[in-house]
């Protein structure tokens, strides 16, 4: 197992390199980069700053009828020196290959640089946003597993019963409801929208959080996170519940279960000592995907709706603003977390079933 883990850890390096390289060259050819946006803002400032004499003089000084040889369409009408200064400010004055190798060297050292549009380093912004996303992702994943696994087992044991039918109907209806729509409903009903005002609408803590006693901090934290977690998990029960049910049904019908029953073993012992271990393999394998979906894609709109400054919202805003250091930094962190969770999933495989030998494969 040790040699297998070393190989998997070493494979993280080329995987990260391939993803970062592919996205780096894609964004280079994408229109509307940070330089174009800065040039557009400069030209907009020229047109709106002509009312005062000083502003008019500054604008005339920046204007130039000759656009020069700049590669940016937005540079038309701007002084070439202004264009060169803006290009240098965002690091685009260097050749493409030089910027690429600098990016790789910085990321090897976990140096993500500074945001192009905020006065903060990327690593600082990630550190501030990561706890929010981890809180939302962990609690959502935990609740989904705590509900779906027992429910799936009970549905397998009572397959075809009335309980199985109406519980399947409920989880499918929940799966069909978009998370953001359910979040809006929760806000309207319980966050002062139109009816009750039981829960707060913004952030994970109150402004006076630091002054609260330890038990008050716990209550305040769960008071704030209740609605975002409920909105996130609404569509997450169906897949895991049906996966658990089908896994148990497959195992229950196997010969070793028939033999155990013929020997007179207790049904609970058969179910939880023998069937559970084998049926849980598929469920464990789906944990990384479940956590990552809750961690980013599943919580993005929820973070926006409940004003949670998480990593998903940070990466989304950076993509819209073409804030390349933040874009690549969040992408790097997400990829690294996903790869490490896949390795953790393999380790959990061997803990659940020692017969599995990845190194032997």
TrEMBL record:
GO CC term (a single one): plasma membrane
Transmembrane segments: 9-30, 134-153, 165-191, 221-244, 279-306, 326-352
Keyword terms: Cell inner membrane, Cell membrane, Membrane, Transmembrane, Transmembrane helix, Transport
Main location: membrane
Keyword Transmembrane helix appears in the UniProt entry: yes
A Pfam family that the UniProt record links to this protein: BPD_transp_1
GO terms of biological process kind: microcin transport; transmembrane transport
PROSITE patterns xrefs: ABC_TM1
Subcellular location: Cell inner membrane; Cell membrane
Statement: the UniProt record of this protein carries the keyword Transport: yes
InterPro entries, A to Z: MetI-like (IPR000515), MetI-like_sf (IPR035906)
Every ABC transmembrane type-1 domain range: 130-345
Membrane topology qualifier: Multi-pass membrane protein
PANTHER family attached to this UniProt entry: INNER MEMBRANE ABC TRANSPORTER, INNER MEMBRANE ABC TRANSPORTER PERMEASE PROTEIN YEJB
NCBIfam families named in the record: PRK15133.1
Cited function: Probably part of a binding-protein-dependent transport system. Probably responsible for the translocation of the substrate across the membrane.
Protein family according to the UniProt entry: Belongs to the binding-protein-dependent transport system permease family. OppBC subfamily.
Name this protein carries in UniProt: Inner membrane ABC transporter permease protein YejB
